[in-house]
Amino acid sequence: MRRTCLFSGTGDALVGWVQILVRLSLKLSLVILDEVLSLLSSLHPLPAASFTISLRTVDNITVMIKLRPGVSPSCQIRVKNVIRSELKIKPGENVTFAFSCSTPEKYFVMEIQKNIDCVSGPCPFGDVHLYPLGLPRLNRTFIWDVKASTKAGLELKFSTPWLKQIEPGETCPDFVSYNINSCIDMATVNIGTFCRNGSVSRVKLLGGVIMSLHLPWDSPLTTSGFSIANRASIKRLCIIESILKGESSITLMSPNYPLGFPEDELMTWQFVIPSNMRASVFFHNYSLSNCERKEERVEYYLPGSLSNPEVFKLSDSQPANIAGSFNLSLQGCDQDAQNPGILRLLFQVVVQHPQVDESKYLPAPSLLLLTDAWAEHRKEEKYWGFLELWTLLEFEEVGCQATLRPVLPPWVPPAIVTARRMAMLKFAICDGV
Asked: Which residue, 208, 211, 210, 235, is CA-closest to 154?
């Protein structure tokens, strides 16, 4: 039976109905066409781009392509008409393969590991290259596993813009990250995870290192951004060097953070700061382990101090207004075997211009105690000096009486001068204003 649909209304309304029907018809046609193309593609897949990876035996590199965790195997790898979900290419092999989909970066990741033996043979020191070339555009991790003796040190030197340490779980803005692990005997210690664009310029390690570089599939990077050099033994777990230029700040963490720093270990942070800048150290998060022997502490080598190293507890207020470059070391202890606890530290170094005009402070040839030696420098005017901890002091003489008044500027924590240190006060006398 034939049915006729009648449209009532004005001519404009009729035109509108016709336009709606045309759009529905076009949309339905596109859906049907898309389904037909998908069916034809599954029956006769379009030829995919092929890749050839050739690995030399001497380079000792292994390439592994595998499915991303939690992703369904909708895309596969074809090697000589054999379908597989992962591919491992060993040193000395030459393999040509292709993917069954046009977007393999959604399904696969790639690891490129190079093993370097510096114990039984010479090390390939110098710039580290991203090899092999011509890899498919996948999320990829380059791993350099360097075996080295504890009698020698390895130095990782980073090219500008250097590195910035991040906390576990954080992500780098460009998704490019470095991870550094120290390997001593069978123990592995996570030195930290770093992004680009920071102030960490070098990392020195005792023994071997596992260095990883994580790149997203669309990263334009073609160089590793670091080199490896041989150094004398550093006699500690690691040394991390940071170069701070101008007003800036840096946040750093102890190895394995937020887990525990290795028992009875020692490490050092070196800060290279212009002499006309001032640095302050702030401990934001720390915990202590239960020590059987020794005491957990931090040690500073401060510019101009005659009592280096300056020793502090982690619970102390840390040095402020430090003039120029300095070192900070973290020392662990022998822990209680039954209840070891955790030693960890997260801290910040803030670099600023001096908050007062220090150009008029002329240091004297020697440090004097507050004794009769003061009379040798008696003048009827104010004198200024600096503690070894860089706390500003004001000296004033009235007649034969000399008085000392500590002046704690607002950027110096008041607790930085303890009663014990005040009792052993040393100061530099200026020659006058």
From this structure: 208
Residues in the chain, total: 433
Residue 73: beta bridge partners?
Answer: none
Please work out, in degrees rounded to the nearest 5, the angle formed at the alpha carbon of residue 205 by the alpha carbons of 202 and 208: 130
- Spell out the long-range contacts of 302-308 with Cβ–Cβ below 8 A and sequence spacing 24 or more: 302/326, 302/388, 302/389, 302/390, 303/275, 304/386, 304/388, 305/388, 306/367, 306/388, 306/426, 307/388
Instruction: Outline where DSSP puts E strands in 100-186.
Output: 108-117, 126-129, 139-147, 152-158, 163-166, 177-184
Q: What angle do CA 123, 124, 129 make, to 5 degrees?
A: 145
Please, which residues have CB within 8 angstroms of residue 105's CB and are 6 or more apart in sequence?
137, 138, 139, 217, 218
User: Along the 433 residues of the chain, how does pLDDT read in single tens digits?
Assistant: 444 444 344 455 444 544 654 464 555 454 444 444 444 444 445 456 899 999 999 999 999 999 999 888 899 999 998 999 999 999 999 999 999 999 999 999 999 999 998 888 778 889 999 989 889 999 999 999 999 888 888 999 999 899 999 999 999 999 999 999 998 877 899 999 999 999 999 999 998 999 999 999 999 999 999 999 988 889 999 999 999 988 999 999 999 999 999 999 999 999 999 999 999 999 999 999 999 999 999 999 999 888 899 999 999 999 999 999 999 999 999 999 999 999 999 999 999 998 765 544 433 333 333 333 333 333 333 333 333 333 445 555 444 444 555 554 444 444 443 333 333 333 344 443 3
Domain ranges of the chain: 46-235, 244-354, 367-428
Report whether 64 contacts 41 (CB < 8 A): no
Q: Does residue 26 sit in helix, strand or coil? A: helix
- Coil/strand/helix, residue 76: coil
Residue of 163, 154, 147, 131 whose CA lies nearest to 56: 131
Q: What is the CATH number of domain 244-354?
A: 2.60.120.290
∠ CA 268-289-319, nearest 5°, is 45
Sheet with 401-406: list strands edge to edge. 382-386, 392-398, 401-406
Phi/psi of residue 41, each to 5°?
A: -65, -35
**pTM for the full model?**
0.73
